[in-house]
């Protein structure tokens, strides 16, 4: 008879109170006993109304965002312009030295930043560390290559305003902020409402110590959008988030003729056509559930040739059943390493309930449930709050009225659509009017070469997932998934600097689409 596993417990030294104490010790200027501060005009301010917040991991109370009102945010933007006017004239070697020093400080506090990510947005330990590492390593690449990227270019006339989603505070938001500063711009960022405020506050504090001109404020989008999007002082708006908010920002920046980078969601699809390498596909499936598919390059939709459906299921179902979920900091023994889970909670209990309700409604309207895991086999503390957790679900043929048919679920819900012709395959893969990534699995290179150009995604992989990419790799989107300048590699620097008169930036604009 197998021995009964020991009950799980929080690994010593990883509690929220431990992370909070360490953050206050690392940057006492940016934290108070019970709240984080806003950063503007080069100073930390105990202003704004601090909202209560809880961790999605187990409901533990954590620090909430100190939300500013619109007049204060407007003052912060004006102060950032003053910083920008001084910073843009600082010689590049000095800017590079200060950004490099910031990266060294971030590396020194790598594990603390990752622990804050676990508590604030529920990332498993492995993925939290990777988020920090990608930010540091990615910006180091720019530090090494910035000279040639800035030849013949100058900073924008005003600071860059960043409004980003909560899922990648370091590798997307902090990465972008430091590259924007390296290129000669002051930087403004709004902390995501749903999580990451302590992590971003610590990162900003380390950067400000090195003289980087960062403004970090909290508040609702509706309250702060006038200041962060429409203010004449703003030189560029950079947004990462959903289509509804993105569409409103796109309208505002178009009206103002303002420089912009708007990364929005799309339904990323994986097509299966005349394919037989099922072992390779099966090995990829669990990795596609990293962080519960809460990322812009997740693949929530498989479009499968009907005659291959039985073989697809034989490969897919055992793979999806191997996906692990649970408390990211729970261990059997104090000396054990933190668990290597595929994902932990969703960003909050409301999101988990929303998706669970959408699944139930889709099944009620005719979708076929092919796989529904339960929390019973999850990696949890005894009696912990699991309201933000949703185990993997797979549905066949979601009904057209369901949001799961046409929109990105941003959670661990896969949908499968069956097709009979190549035309149906392409139509199903292009269901959301543009996507960031897509993949087509087919044995025949000629078939891939013929079909891939008709898939409306910025990056299309052959049998492999595509990602946002790092360093020199470009990134963008087609259709409604992207508005404005493309980024990645030298394009990120071009997007936040001015070049020769009449230059057209590669990107997806109302008047033109220019592919690099």
From TrEMBL:
EC number: 1.2.1.78
Main EC class the enzyme belongs to: oxidoreductase
Keywords annotated in UniProt: Oxidoreductase
InterPro entries: Ald_DH/histidinol_DH, Ald_DH_C, Ald_DH_N, Aldehyde_DH_dom, Aldehyde_DH_Superfamily
Domain Aldehyde dehydrogenase: 49-490
Domain of life: Bacteria
GO molecular function terms attached to this record: 2-formylbenzoate dehydrogenase (NAD+) activity
Pfam families cross-referenced by the UniProt entry: Aldedh
Keyword Transport carried by entry: no
Classification via SUPFAM superfamilies: ALDH-like
Protein name, per record: 2-formylbenzoate dehydrogenase
Source organism (scientific name): Streptomyces hundungensis
């Amino acid at each position: 008879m197998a021995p009964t596993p020991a009950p799980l417990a929080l690994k010593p030294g990883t509690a929220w109170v431990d992370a909070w104490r360490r953050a206050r010790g690392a940057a006492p200027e940016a934290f108070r006993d019970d709240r984080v501060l806003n950063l503007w005009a080069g100073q930390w301010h105990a202003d704004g109304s601090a909202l209560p917040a809880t961790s999605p991991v187990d409901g533990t109370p954590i620090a909430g965002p100190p939300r500013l009102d619109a007049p204060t945010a407007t003052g912060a933007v004006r102060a950032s312009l003053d910083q920008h006017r001084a910073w843009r004239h600082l010689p590049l070697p000095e800017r590079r030295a200060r950004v490099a020093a910031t990266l060294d400080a971030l590396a020194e506090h790598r594990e603390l930043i990752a622990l804050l990510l676990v508590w604030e947005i529920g990332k498993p330990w492995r993925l939290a560390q990777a988020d920090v590492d990608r930010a540091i390593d990615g910006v180091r690449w720019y530090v090494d290559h910035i000279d040639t990227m800035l030849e013949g270019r100058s900073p924008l006339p005003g600071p860059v305003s960043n409004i980003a989603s909560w899922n990648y505070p370091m590798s997307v938001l902090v990465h972008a902020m430091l590259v924007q500063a390296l290129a000669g711009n002051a930087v403004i960022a709004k902390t995501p409402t749903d999580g990451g405020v302590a992590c971003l506050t610590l990162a900003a504090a380390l950067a400000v110590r090195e003289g980087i001109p960062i403004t970090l404020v909290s508040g609702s989008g509706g309250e702060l959008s006038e200041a962060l999007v429409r203010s004449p002082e703003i030189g560029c708006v950079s947004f990462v988030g959903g289509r509804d908010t993105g569409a409103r920002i796109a309208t505002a920046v178009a009206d103002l003729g303002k420089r912009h980078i708007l990364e929005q969601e799309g339904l990323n699809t994986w097509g299966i056509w005349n394919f037989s390498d099922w072992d390779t596909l099966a090995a990829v499936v669990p990795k596609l559930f990293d962080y519960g598919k809460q990322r812009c390059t997740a693949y929530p939709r498989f479009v499968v040739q009907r005659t291959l459906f039985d073989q697809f299921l034989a490969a897919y179902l055992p793979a999806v059943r191997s996906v692990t979920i649970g408390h990211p900091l729970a261990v059997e023994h104090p000396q054990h390493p933190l668990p290597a889970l595929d994902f932990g909670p969703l960003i909050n209990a409301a999101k988990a309930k929303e998706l669970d309700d959408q699944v139930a409604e889709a099944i009620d309207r005719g979708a076929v449930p092919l796989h529904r895991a339960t929390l019973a086999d999850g990696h949890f503390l005894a009696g912990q709050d699991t309201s933000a957790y949703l185990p993997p679900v797979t549905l066949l043929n979601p009904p057209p009225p369901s949001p799961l048919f046409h929109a990105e679920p941003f959670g661990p819900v896969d949908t499968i659509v069956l097709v009979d012709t190549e035309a149906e395959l392409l139509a199903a893969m292009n269901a959301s009017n543009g996507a960031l990534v897509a993949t087509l699995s087919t044995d025949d290179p000629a078939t891939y070469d013929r079909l891939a150009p008709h898939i409306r995604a910025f990056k299309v992989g052959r049998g492999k997932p595509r990602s946002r990419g790092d360093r020199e790799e470009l990134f963008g989107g087609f259709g409604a998934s992207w508005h404005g300048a493309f980024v990645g590699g030298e394009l990120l620097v071009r997007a936040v600097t001015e070049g020769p008169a009449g230059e057209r930036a590669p990107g997806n604009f109302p008047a033109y689409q220019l592919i690099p």
